[in-house]
Each structure stands twice: as C-alpha cells, then as structure tokens.
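quick one before i forget lol
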Amino acid sequence: MGGRWVSVYTVSRARCSVPRGRRVEVGEAVLVGREQRLSIGTDPPDKEVSRRALIVTATETGWRIWILNRNGAVIHPWGQAPQRAGDTTTLTWPLVGIRVLGRRSVQHWVLLEADAGTRGDEPHETGNEAPAPAPAPADRLRPLATMQLQALRVLFADCLRWPPSFPAEQRQLQQVANRLGVGIGGLQERLREARKRATEFGLGRNVSITDPEYLFALVRGGFLPAPTARPFRREI
C-alpha cells in the first residue's frame, strides 16, 4: 500500500474541528487517547474518553485496531455498514473511520487513510492478521451506467461521505428524483438495475431499493471507487 495517515477530529454541536494527523509506516503503532500526542476528548473536554483509547497499527494489507476505550468504539469502513468494535479488529480497507464513544453530544473520530488499498471482506474480529482476499470479480461484470452511479451517489450520499457521516441517512426518493431532474419511475428503474448488479455480484438477499445493503455489496465489488479527495488536515 502507499502512504498511510492516522488523523483525529471532533464534531460537536458548536463546531467541527480540522483533522490533525501524522503519516505512519507499515508496522508502526499509534496510540490515540485523551492524554496522547494524537489526542481526542480534550477540546471540548470529555472524560468519558479514556486516556489510552485505542492503538492502531498499519499492516502490509490494512490496519490492526486495538480498542482500549472503556466505552468502546464503532468502526465505519468507507462505503460499508458501521459495526461495534471488538477488542481487536483487522481490516483490509483503504479508508476507515473509528468513532470513539464518549459523551453523546460529541463525536470523536479517528481516520485511517491509505493512498491505495485492496478491498476485501467486511471488518472481522481476530487476533491475527487476516490474509488478503482474492480479487473481486467486478472486472468480469459490466460496469454500472453513469445514470445508475448518479442515482446511488445522491440517494446514499451520507453512506459514501468521507470523513464519515453519523448518522448516515438516505434521502427520500422524490428528493433524489428532483435533484437529478428525472421522474420517480425513471429513478426507481435505475436503482433496480443497480440492485440487480449487486445480486449478480453476490448480494445474499432481496432488499428494497432504498436499503443501503446492496450499495455496500457494490462498493465491495469495486463498482464505486473510494474518494481520492481527502479533507485538509494539519500534520503534527
């Protein structure tokens, strides 16, 4: 993988801070917490965040995350469903947000970013490094049409945002149709075709066209690329 970054920022009712971060090398471990160089829970002060909240190590294929925070954390891989973190999680994914749980009125985020990466299985809890998965067969399938991509990106904008958005909520179909300048029937057809492609790729169950589960399957298949534009951040 290319260059790696570990950054932190805070979202509160009053403001959203500028991410602060540092570049890391493969094998390097970074400690994040209330009393660390990469600090969270300090502005505004939040004693619900542990002094040592988590340790992140950049691996050859992704990230290893060790959660120490007494209130836990939620992992938000880009374009995937968030999951409550176990003690140790190993990921093969280019962009990962970790929401460290403290006071409910404040969101403490740790951002893991790689310049390049391999998409693989969804996050899983393990004590060991997971092997890199076999390449996804998306190159053997027809790409999504431009109109289908537009519909997905507008409907599921929150799910595809980087840095992550919480809560991530999809727009109403009529809102999406109005924004794209199409009829509701035309929009539904685009989404049905995108859902069908996810089924061809391996979506295990039938879901509605507003259910992001098929979007997650399409992202895993490489049909929607990870964003290349990253937020401005201060290096520390």
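fyi Residues 137-220 form one domain.
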